[in-house]
Amino acid sequence: MLFRIEGVTSAECPSCHRLFCAQCKVPWHGGINCQEFQQQKLKCFMYNVPNYDEKNKKGKAAITSIETETSCRQSPKSFCGICYDFIPENDIVRGSGTCNHPFCANCISNHVAEQLSRSIMEFNCPNPRCFEELKPQHLHPILPQEVIVRWESERLVLHCPVI
Description:
The chain is of the alpha+beta class. The chain has helices at residues 34-48, 64-69, 71-74, 105-117, 136-139, 145-154, and strands spanning 10-12, 19-21, 26-27, 52-53, 58-59, 77-79, 86-88, 92-94, 102-104. It has two domains: 33-75, no CATH class; 77-156, 2-Layer Sandwich (Herpes Virus-1).
C-alpha cells in the first residue's frame, strides 16, 4: 500500500521494486517533470492520431504549430500504450489492420504470451477503449515462432462453453 504525500512523485513498487511515477501512474520518467511528461505524451498522441484536433479532442485538421513543436515529429517516437514509454518508431507495432494503436514490440509480445498462457486464444487490442481483435498475421514479425504456432493451432480448437 502506498500513501499520497504532497510533492513526492517517484515511488517504488513494493512488489516488483521498479520505480514509477505516483502522480502520472506510469513507469518512472526520469529527467523530466510530470508536467513535461504529460505534454510530451499529448504531443506524441497527437502525432499518432491522424488529423487530430487538440481543441476539440477529435480527429479533424491537426494544428500545424503544434505539429512542428512535437518532439515525436522531430525524432520519430511513439507512445507505447502498455509501458507508457516513448519508443523509437522502428520498434513500434500497430494493433491490427484497422486499429492503429502503438505498442512497443516487447510489450505486445508479452501481452500475447500472457493471454496464451491463460488459454485465451482470441483477444483484443490492449487499449481499453479498442475492441479490435488482434490477429497472428499482424504480429508475425515480432512474435517468437513457437508463440505464433501455438496461437494459430489453438484458434482452430473448439472448446466446450460449459466447462
